[in-house]
Design a protein that fits this description.
Elements lengths: L9 H15 L2 H23 L11 H37 L3 H26 L12 H25 L5 H40 L1 H4 L1 E7 L11 E4 L9 E12 L2 E6 L11 E4 L5 E5 L13
Antiparallel strand pairs: 1-3, 1-6, 2-3, 3-4, 4-5
Length: 303
């Protein structure tokens, strides 16, 4: 039986696939778009949970990238490691089993069985069965990807076993491109879900511990702003010639974006339904920051 791989090994085929894809779209463009997408999902989810419509916000490119790092670093590292290790494992497996027809048959049976079981687990997870199973985010994409990859690879080995010939170079490129796609697409699925979960967790942390995350601010305004919320205090200023006649304390700065300050009450997390407040950042009001790290005396319900 001929040795698989011919003159071109798996690593050469993967490199060839990379060159073909690079002619279609630059790798830097793909990575940048991926980071932008993941960062957008995380930030939009977080601010949506905090009651701010994402259309009211505008972030620089660096903000999106920083928001995506914690989401994308581990999945990308794992996939890169798999792409580097898989050609070596494939070469060792083929060289060992092609000279032992029975061993190759048992290998195909084991891989196809494991692939079928993985797909069954993925289907059960997508059907949310059993109901009591609190499944981690990676379960669905991981087992779906693993099952599909093992079944496709088993088909390749079965073809090699029964034909006694090595798949053509074009066929190998198609097959390995499919395997790479089966590894990447579930990774994107996982990062999307993970970005949403991290956005919700970020919002929860801000709600529960605003004094640890958000900076305290004082707002000065020329007229009453009718700011309402748990912990907000209004103080009229008596200086007759002062431009700003009212001072508002008990506020925390959530973000400055799109020519607006988004502030929240200091006792924001204690009151269900407490609102974020948008103020113009056009000079009509003055905003000062304070170094206040102590938790304000907030009662449950904001009273």
């Amino acid at each position: 039986m001929a040795e698989a791989g011919g003159g071109d090994g798996p690593s050469q085929d993967i490199a060839r696939v990379g060159r073909i894809l690079a002619q279609i779209v630059a790798p830097t463009t793909v990575i940048t778009s991926l980071l932008m997408y993941i960062g957008t999902i995380r930030l939009n989810t977080m601010y949506s949970e905090l009651g701010i419509n994402s259309s009211m916000l505008s972030f620089p490119f660096q903000e999106y990238v920083m928001g995506s790092v914690k989401v994308a670093d581990e999945p990308l590292a794992i996939v890169l490691l798999l792409l580097l290790v898989a050609p070596f494992v494939h070469g060792v497996l083929i060289r060992f089993t092609l000279w032992h027809r029975t061993a190759l048959g048992w290998t195909i049976l084991a891989l196809s069985t494991l692939g079928a079981v993985s797909l069954a687990v993925a289907v059960a997870a997508m059907a949310d069965w059993p109901r009591s199973w609190h499944q981690p985010l990676f379960v669905k994409p991981l087992f779906l990807s693993l099952g599909a990859i093992l079944l496709v690879y088993s088909i390749y080995l079965y073809t090699t076993l029964h034909s006694g010939q090595v798949m053509s170079s074009t066929g190998q490129i198609v097959q390995r491109t499919a395997l790479v796609a089966l590894a990447l697409l579930p990774m994107l699925w996982y990062m999307d879900d993970h970005a949403r979960e991290m956005g919700k967790e970020d919002a929860k942390q801000i709600r529960e511990h605003p004094e640890e995350i958000l900076v305290a601010v004082v707002v000065y305004a020329p007229q009453q702003l009718n700011l309402e919320g748990p912990g907000i205090q209004k103080t009229p200023l008596t200086e007759p010639n002062a431009k700003f006649r009212y001072r508002y304390t008990g506020l925390r700065l959530l973000i400055e974006s799109n020519q607006q300050y988004f502030v929240v009450p200091a006792c924001w997390g204690t009151t269900p339904g407490a609102r974020a407040i948008a103020l113009p950042a056009d000079g009509s009001i003055r905003l000062e920051t304070l170094n206040v790290a102590n938790k304000p005396p907030c009662s449950r319900g904001g009273r």
